Amino acid sequence: MLLEDIVKKILQARVYEAARETPISPTPSLSKRFSNQILIKREDLQPVFSFKIRGAYNKMAQLDEAQKAKGVIAASAGNHAQGLAMAARQMGVKAVIVMPRVTPEIKVQAVRGWGARVVLKGDAFGEALAHAKELIDEHGYTYIPPYDDNDVIAGQGTVGMEILRQHSGPLDAVFVPVGGGGLLAGVAAYIKYLRPETKVFGVEAEDSACLKAALEAGERVTLDQVGVFAEGVAVAQIGEAPFEILRHHVDGVITVNTDEMCAAVKDIFDDTRAVSETSGALSLAGLKKYIQQTQVRDQTLLCINSGANINFDRLQHVAERTELGEQREAILAVQIPERPGSFKQFCRVIGRRMVTEFNYRYADPDGAHIFVGVQVKPGGEDRAEVIRRLREADYPVEDLTDNELAKLHIRHLGGGRPRERFEEEVYRFEFPERPGALMNFLTHLPADWNISLFHYRNHGAAYGRVLVGLQMPNGDRAHAEKHFDRIGYRYWKETDNTAYRLFMA
Question: Which residue intervals of 42-139 are DSSP H helices?
């Protein structure tokens, strides 16, 4: 009965006063490469470059005049904020959007461009939401949720309605990105009601897989932490209303990592010339993984490009990780003899493969540690073959292809070593990108600690990745993380990481 009610709401949804019916794009290159017909639903072509306008407008269309007169409010880090701001301007309603201070400037300016008032509060969504609730109590604003509401779900569900209307032929599976679950719930409800034989899969980032955790537990759970690389789906708990639908009407959840998302961004660009945000490319990454896991051929598979609100500066990082996401590059730490001709001999052993990166600095008269990238064929077998050949030639090898520290920092620092031996503890942090973040970190460190290493790289995201080496009195080492917990930034201890030990210790 719930499914039928949602489908009726979808059919009655008022979205086309603001949203567009977006096309489905073919992908000739991808389809040929994966031996399936792969289609992309282009929600990046909406006026706010995201599907979120559908749910926001439909929810506002259900408000009475008294609610509209009070004005509307939302807490959002981006796409929902833009959708609501546009909907409010079109209806002549005052809109207030509370955004975390770390929200990318492109999204802040876009919301202001639609005429909404932006309030920047806190370093995370939870703090922004709490402040939004305070403003509701103070001013009586009407809250417009981003996903946890049946009218919002119905608005997003019009994407599914368009898919079945535009593509009347065979449709084996549809892949939908998951944050709070509103889009997936609406699409799944409509497709499963009309075409139950079509499989519907949710796709989540590995470090924010709240739906996967809820389905495994049989109830909604809250993740302790969520990753922010795909900020559009960085949600700690699946919505209550979406979960009531999804627990019965999805065929599974696929999780993907950062490199796989970056590769999908490139795939979308290659076939459509659209520049997707990482959460927008999430569903294509899941579609590709599904093909690899099931080895299906000659099927029709569709994914949703849910948005294109990406900081231009972030594209550098996306491009850097793309080859790894396609499994076309292996990152290796190799020890070679410290003598003339060693690199040439090393290249002979790896064969006719392109060396994509080579970092080295003289450190030892007998042996040299090199950080090397090697172009390989997708699938993993070729990478294993490279490592096998090197070890047969008596080269000590460590595979760092899946080592996050190596890919984020060591590749830019390889060869930098202290002149004398000393003890340090090494930690990796995520700093919020805002003034005062570094000073907040330094202020919480004891005065007798010495920073022996500091590497930071801006990726155009809400959080900066920082690597820090610290010299501290022996008695403080066991209690160091108590200081970090008080700071409140995410961190990982990396003192025993192989990449650090080989290139920097």
Answer: 52-61, 65-70, 79-91, 105-113, 125-139
Q: How confident is the model at residue 223 (pLDDT cuts 50, 70, 90)?
A: very high
Average pLDDT of 73-91? Answer: 92
Is residue 110 included in any domain, yes or no?
A: no
Which is higher by pLDDT, 172 or 420? 172
| CATH number, position 250 | 3.40.50.1100
Same domain, 337 and 295: no
- In terms of average pLDDT, the best of 95-104, 359-368, 385-394 is 385-394
The answer to whether 298 and 36 are in contact (CB under 8 A) is yes
User: How many domains does the chain fold into?
Assistant: 3
Residues 6+ positions from 114 with CB-CB distance below 8 Å:
48, 82, 85, 86, 88, 89, 95
188, 215 contact by CB (below 8 A): no
Inter-axis angle of helices 240-249 and 182-194, nearest 10: 40
Among 272, 293, 323, which residue terminates a domain?
323
Domain span including residue 460: 425-503
Domain co-membership, 291 together with 397:
no
In this prediction the pTM is 0.79
Q: Are 144 and 59 in contact (CB under 8 A)?
A: yes
Q: What is the pLDDT of residues 115-130, one digit of tens each?
A: 999 999 987 677 888 9
Active site residues: 52, 306
Tens digits of residue pLDDT in 225-238? 888 788 888 888 99
